[in-house]
Amino acid sequence: FQKIIGEAGIESRPIIGGNLMRQPFLRKHYRPAEFPNADLLHDNGFYIGNNQFVTDERMDVLDDLMRKFFARQTITK
Question: The pTM is what?
Answer without folding.
Answer: 0.67
